[in-house]
Amino acid sequence: MGNGALLVMDVQREIVEMADDGSGYLDRLGAAIEGARAAGMSVIYVVIGLRPGQPEVSPRNRVLTNSAAMGLFTEGAAGTAIHPAIAPREGDVVVTKRRGSAFSGSDLDLVLRARDIDRLVLAGIATSGVVLYTLCHAQDLDFGLTVLVDGCLDLDPEVHRFLTEKLFPQWVEVALVEDWLKTVADPAQVQAE
Hints:
GO terms for molecular function: hydrolase activity. The chain is of the alpha/beta class.
């Protein structure tokens, strides 16, 4: 299976407030995080953080320009913090990115190489944002990839459905959190069930 890491991406207070659909998303994501830790996988949190004044935001980047205009994603702001329901623990890594992909403007690649990680499990908000961008970037870097379908959310449920049911399965493994947890559980524990 290789040396894997769970990427928990953009699950920040203000993003959760915009996207959470009341379906138990944070509970499912919390279960995935605990399962990864129990299996000895690295848990890496990725957050988007823009410097005060947003010097890294180009007016040609519509998404970031609109977000910055709304005051979103400013480093150090309370809304930019990782949601407390899935907060990092000692030993987890937090990476700050400046763009859509978890790799863009961050040191994620350095962290992954230092830990000899070759397989990524993707979860986060939004499916059509950080998950899609990171999936494409990681695929080009030859990482093994799994997307946790119900470990992702999008502001548009139809876009989420299309990506996770039609597009992503053509490129990478997709799984529900519950099914994925069975694959990372201790084999002796699975046989005992």
